[in-house]
């Protein structure tokens, strides 16, 4: 079986993604209630009963808020670094099966090789993940990698390296600077936090990053975590207009709030 992937939901109202291999079914983040996660999984032919683990990027509620409801599914293992686990555990009524890793570590979970790396965001110890599965030279199970990267204010060298030579990139395009500036609902300190170096990537920052790295191995780029008020599909499409001619073999998916994507092969 090839590595398959789906964004179940993305944005300030909740974040979760599904990664499926021959030997594992995992969620990346669980920012929805268990009932909602069950509904989202059913839409792609899966269920919480079949999920093996959750990998948490950080403790913010839109990424970890569903962990409390997973107490009804004690078989699901929760992977996080110590800072994230400590912050999430403080709000739970039970103790999940925590599997702690050190940020920067590389380890195996079933047939997945998991690489963790730090990202700049205003959380305790936020991370990104690179998931790799398959074998070089195997026509039936080719080696595939997916880099999962949301909630960061800028992309330092360690982050950029994880974007090279993978098949699938999942990255936030959080806001349009003009729309953020014009927003009347957010106070100035909040706008500064969002646009700061430990906030969220703007459309322009994503364009510059992807243009600079632009790997021919990329087969699919998911643009996620769009702000409902301070971004739009049209604004992201304008940003992509300069990228598409450079990455002609790459498919782009813009995932707005309230949307999911089909369960697709990674490459």
From TrEMBL:
<dbReference type="InterPro" id="IPR036866">
    <property type="entry name" value="RibonucZ/Hydroxyglut_hydro"/>
</dbReference>
<dbReference type="InterPro" id="IPR052533">
    <property type="entry name" value="WalJ/YycJ-like"/>
</dbReference>
<dbReference type="Pfam" id="PF12706">
    <property type="entry name" value="Lactamase_B_2"/>
</dbReference>
<protein>
    <submittedName>
        <fullName>Beta-lactamase domain protein</fullName>
    </submittedName>
</protein>
<dbReference type="InterPro" id="IPR001279">
    <property type="entry name" value="Metallo-B-lactamas"/>
</dbReference>
<feature type="domain" description="Metallo-beta-lactamase">
    <location>
        <begin position="13"/>
        <end position="175"/>
    </location>
</feature>
